[in-house]
Amino acid sequence: MGINDREEIAPGIQAGSIASPVTSLRNFTGSWRSERPVYTPTDAPCHFGCPAHEEISAWLGLMASGNTRGAWEKLVETNPFPAISGRVCPHPCESSCHRGSYDSAVGIHNVERALGDLAIREEWTFPMMPSDHTLPPVAVVGAGPSGLSAAYQMRKRGYRVTVFEALSEAGGTIRSAIPSYRLDRKVLDSEVTRLFSTGILFRPRQRLGRDFSLEELESDYGAVFLAPGAQKSRNFDVGGTTPASMRHGLEILKEYQDIGQVPRWKKVVIVGGGNTALDLARVLLRTGSGEVHIITEESLPGQETTKEELMPGNPQEIARAISEGVTIHPNRAVNRLILQNDRVIGVELVHARKKHFPGTTGRDSFEGTESVMMADQIIPAIGQILSPDGLENIAHGRSRLTVDRNGFLTGSRRIFAAGDACPGGGTVSHAIGSACKAADAMNLFLSREVIPPDWEAKSPLPFENLNLNYFDFSSPMTPPVSSTEILSWDEPEESFSEEVARKEAGRCLSCGACLRCDNCWTLCPDNAVLKSSGTNRSPYILDYGFCKGCGICAHECPTGFIKMIPEP
After folding, report:
1. Fewer Cβ within 10 Å of end Cβ, the chain: N or C?
2. Backbone angles phi, psi at 191, to 5 degrees
3. CB count, 10 Å around CB of 189?
4. Is the distance from CB of 563 to CB of 554 less than 8 angstroms?
5. Helix %, strand %, coil % for the chain, to 5?
6. CA 419 → CA 288, 334, 413, 432, 436, distances in Å?
7. Per-residue pLDDT of the chain (568 residues; tens, 9 = 90+)
8. 486, 323 Cβ separation under 8 angstroms
9. 204 within 8 A of 165, measured Cβ to Cβ
10. What single DSSP character describes residue 241?
11. Which candidate, 50, 42, 75, places its Cα nearest to that of 505?
């Protein structure tokens, strides 16, 4: 922000004359510059790396300043489940954190988890509008993280929301498949209870296609949000062979969550490299299976390869699985099943790195030697797809629902969708973020406003725009380790205390935001930076009547908040 340029020249000033007091203020030297500084807030890279689209640097800044309740309220503007995502998210935001290029990335997920746990202990409630009966009601199908996130976003805007769920409890896959050592059930119950306390109507044991139809929902509600998730395991066969005794990974995980036990095998092989494969392997060890092996076509973290060729599972969970005794065989593919009376007794593996051929599609080719591994059972955990039940008229046999970039279902009148049922999903944070974006579009639709073809494209602040001379090196805080056995069902780590979380939040570089450090105000040689006491986005105003465009303010800004642009 700046004061308009002034073109008048100070009267009465001639060469060789002595200036009278205050006459320098009448000599508007801003006409000398070829560039001008502007205060320009820019999104931090962690925001772009976050699948839930959280404004991370904003709530970290509030936390570091001591405004803990304000930090939580800022966080839950987009993510109503910080205690959950702080535990189960693979936190790609930290891979994007510029602090990682300086010393070590900020432990964002640890601060998020601490904030979520503090909100549960203090029984904080969501800032919420009263229900507006002039607004059309909204139906949500599916009470997983995507459906609950959409319900929250719409209820926050005053809509009356009804959530339909086929199971008896809300939570979706995070309840039915994620083990307790990754997510304590008390945490899940607390986050869900807070959400439903806002007035969202929950209707359990209501299955789409059995108890109601999409046509009925479209008739009774102003808009419908679909969040059925991906509940059907992908088909797995090797050379056309699928043994009758074969069971899928997600099925076994759900069985354990339902009845507390699963079969025991002396030696089991799991095929897949995602979190389902890792969770299953660790559950099998805890329930008494002997050797547990994971076969994955991808590479382990740390191997020299591209990001796309790495195992999709959470690197932290991969390390924990290995430390617990799971044997992972990277860069392997199952070439043949070895059967005896329709029972798997072993697998033939091909050992190779993936070999990509430019211009080709389909499965990558493998080259290498073959080996045999004997096993009692082989369990595929290669991902899930959309279950068509109740969705036959809109799924058309596809593995995912077809939506535009705002979550609007192709060919529908008033149906939106997000989460694992749509392309690009796979994590709890993505389910939350995609639902938040679709809910924004749904609100515009119900308000009879134009839904943009896509939200405005932006770019994160480049690392080189930071002035790191103003930041000290510091090591990240580490969460305390729980005093539990290696194969315990309890969480292996404890949450940060509020004090420790505040210290870790203080390591944030506040990329692209104003720190109110006064550098620009102090160092400007022309006193062209003025402090603002108003409600401007910046606490400073640039007086372009005197700014010569020297660029000192931009160069000395620690966070890249000031940019130099050509003079118009």
Report:
1. C
2. -65, -40
3. 15
4. yes
5. 30, 15, 50
6. 34, 30, 20, 7, 10
7. 555 544 443 444 444 545 455 555 566 777 889 999 999 999 999 999 999 999 999 999 999 999 999 999 999 999 999 999 999 999 999 999 999 999 999 999 999 999 999 999 999 999 999 999 999 999 999 999 999 999 999 999 999 999 999 999 999 999 999 999 999 999 999 999 999 999 999 999 999 999 999 999 999 999 999 999 998 888 887 877 677 778 899 999 999 988 888 999 999 999 999 999 999 999 999 999 999 999 999 999 887 777 778 898 888 899 999 999 999 999 999 988 888 887 888 889 998 665 554 444 444 556 666 889 999 899 999 988 888 888 988 988 889 999 998 899 988 889 999 999 999 888 999 999 999 999 999 999 999 877 666 555 678 999 999 999 999 999 999 998 887 778 999 999 999 999 999 999 999 999 999 999 999 999 999 889 998 876 556 789 999 999 999 999 999 999 999 999 999 8
8. yes
9. yes
10. B
11. 75
Specify the long-range contacts of residues 205-212, CB closer than 8 Å, at least 24 apart: 205/165, 205/166, 205/167, 205/168, 206/164, 206/165, 206/166, 207/166, 207/389, 207/390, 208/141, 208/164, 208/166, 208/389, 208/390, 208/391, 209/389, 209/390, 209/391, 209/392, 210/389, 210/390, 212/164
CATH 3.30.70.20, the chain: domain bounds: 2-41+514-566
Assign a CATH topology to domain 238-383.
FAD/NAD(P)-binding domain (3.50.50)
Task: Specify the CATH number of the domain 2-41+514-566.
Answer: 3.30.70.20
Query: Distance (Å, rounded) from C-alpha 373 to C-alpha 294?
Result: 12
| Per-residue pLDDT tens over the stretch 449-499 | 776 665 556 789 999 999 999 999 999 999 988 877 789 999 999 999 999
Look up the CATH architecture of domain 138-231+386-446: 3-Layer(bba) Sandwich (3.50)
Distance CA 12, CA 378 (A): 93
Collect all residues with Cβ–Cβ distance below 8 Å to 126 and sequence separation of at least 6: 76, 80, 152, 156, 194, 195, 198
Residue 44, SS3? coil
Where does residue 179 rank: exposed (0-12), middle (13-18), buried (19+ CB within 10 A)? middle
With beta carbons less than 8 A apart as the criterion, state whether 34 and 549 touch.
yes
DSSP string, 186-224: HHHHHHHHHHHTTT-EEE-S--BTTTB-HHHHHHHSSEE
Q: What is the pTM of this model?
A: 0.89
List CB contacts of 370: < 8 A, sequence separation 6 or more.
335, 348, 349, 350, 351
Domain span(s) for CATH 3.50.50.60 in the chain: 138-231+386-446, 238-383
- Domain 45-124+463-505 is classified in which CATH homologous superfamily? Alpha-helical ferredoxin (1.10.1060.10)
Q: Tell me whether strands 540-543 and 529-531 are parallel, antiparallel or unpaired.
A: antiparallel
